[in-house]
Every structure is written in C-alpha cells, then in structure tokens.
Specification:
Elements lengths: L1 H10 L4 H29 L2 E8 L4 E7 L4 E7 L5 E8 L4 E8 L2 E8 L2 H11 L3 H9 L5 E8 L2 E10 L2 E8 L5 E10 L2 E15 L14 E3 L15
Parallel strand pairs: 6-12
Antiparallel strand pairs: 1-2, 1-11, 2-3, 3-4, 4-5, 5-6, 7-8, 8-9, 9-10, 10-11
C-alpha cells in the first residue's frame, strides 16, 4: 500500500495536498484497525502457563485462566507418562481428577462445598506470574552477579534458610526464573538436591481444549474429605 501511495505522489504532483489528506485518513483508519486487533489479541491472552522440568526428566505443567477462573495442573514422570491431572472449572466450584489405576486411566469429578469454592474462586483471581516476580523482589535474595544458562545471560540470586540454600537464575528480559537449584548447606559446603528448568509465559487457548478432558469418562462423586469451613488450598 505504501509503495502505491509513493507512486501516486510522484505522478500526481499537482494534487499532492488532496492525496495526502486522503492517505492520512486511510493510514489512521488502518492503524486504528491494527491497534484494535492487537488489543483484542492481548485481551485473549489471559492464561498463565508455567512448566517446571526436573533434572531427572519428570515435569509439571500448570495453567491458570484469570478471566474464566479455570486451572489445570498436569504431572508427568521422567518417561513423559501422565501421573495425574487436576482441573478446576466452573469458577472454582468443580474439580476434575484424572490418573491411572492398574494401568487404566480413570477420572473423577466433584463439586466443592460452597465456602471452599468461594475461597478457591478468590485464589483463582490471583496472578501466579506476578506472585513469582514479587517473591523474587523480596529482601531475602542476595545478588551474586551474572551467569549464563543455555547461552543466555541471566542474573544469579541466592537465599539461605536453615541448612538449605536456593540459587535462582533469572531472565533479565522477562524477570522470571529459567533455572532453580536447591542445595543442602553443610557448613558452607553445598550439595545439590533439586535442579529444575522453568518456563513462565502468557498464552491463549486457541484450541479451547486446555481445560477439557473429552476422552476420559468421569465418575461423579461427593467432595472427598473436605470440610466446608476449611480452606483446602486448591488453586
């Protein structure tokens, strides 16, 4: 479009002012359309995604939809086989639990007591990504300089509590951890206990399947072992 406009300017010298007025109007309209489309796309990116991969290959993936108040956590073993999946739907009221029993996949679903569901709903409104950043901004962390993880320059911070020392490598562009090490600290000698690689991002659910489990038959049960007056910590 821009090249065509330039050609018209060169050919139609005598109507330059009229052309520019028309071009400016079209450009502003086009820019407004792009801005609106970009804003709509950003509004649709309301799902937080976290992936934690252990050094042995096992990993956990977590999704939270801050708009529709849904959540999912999948845990896999080192071979990539699903151990279990917990899905929270209906604004924190319904729980779906999927796992394996004697090599057969099974699924159960139940509705939480009203008081528990209300507490769960409030938790689902909170941003996990913001919580991670806020936690890393705490005064307990000591800056240890810069390092490299997978060729990327990162910030290295550390904190100790009792006989445990945690080292986190933070992406300087995003502010999120890319690697975490937990060491046992014995008089200054560190022994690695846990080593994870971490991903934090916002995504959109284009497939519409993140919080679904269409291929699993679910059995409806009563809410297991939860007192309606107690916060179960779900979500």
């Amino acid at each position: 479009m821009f090249k065509k406009c330039i050609s018209k300017i060169l050919i139609s010298v005598f109507v330059l002012s009229i052309f520019l007025i028309g071009y400016q109007f079209k450009s502003n309209s086009y820019a407004a359309e792009i801005s609106l489309e970009a804003a709509n796309q950003l509004n649709n990116i309301n799902i937080e995604h976290i992936k934690i991969v252990s050094s042995n290959g096992s990993y956990t993936e977590h999704w939270r939809d801050l708009k529709n108040l849904e959540e999912r956590t999948d845990t896999y073993d080192k071979n990539g086989t699903l151990i279990n999946s917990i899905i929270v739907k209906e604004f924190g009221e319904r729980i779906i639990s999927i796992g394996y029993d004697d090599d057969q996949i099974t699924g159960f679903t139940w509705v939480l007591p009203k008081k528990v569901a209300s507490l769960n709903r409030q938790l689902l409104k909170k941003s996990l990504l913001e919580d991670v950043k806020n936690e890393l901004d705490g005064s307990k962390w000591q800056y240890c300089g810069k390092d490299k993880v997978n060729g990327k320059e990162v910030k290295k911070i550390t904190t100790s509590h009792g006989d445990t020392t945690t080292i986190i490598y933070v992406d300087q562009l995003t502010g999120y951890p890319v690697k975490r090490e937990i060491h046992k600290n014995e008089k200054g000698n560190l022994t690695l206990m846990v080593d994870t690689v971490e991903e934090y991002q916002k995504i959109s659910d284009e497939s519409g399947n993140i919080f679904e489990c269409e291929n699993v038959e679910l059995k409806e049960i009563t809410s297991p072992g939860i007192d309606g007056d107690v916060n179960p910590g779900v979500g």
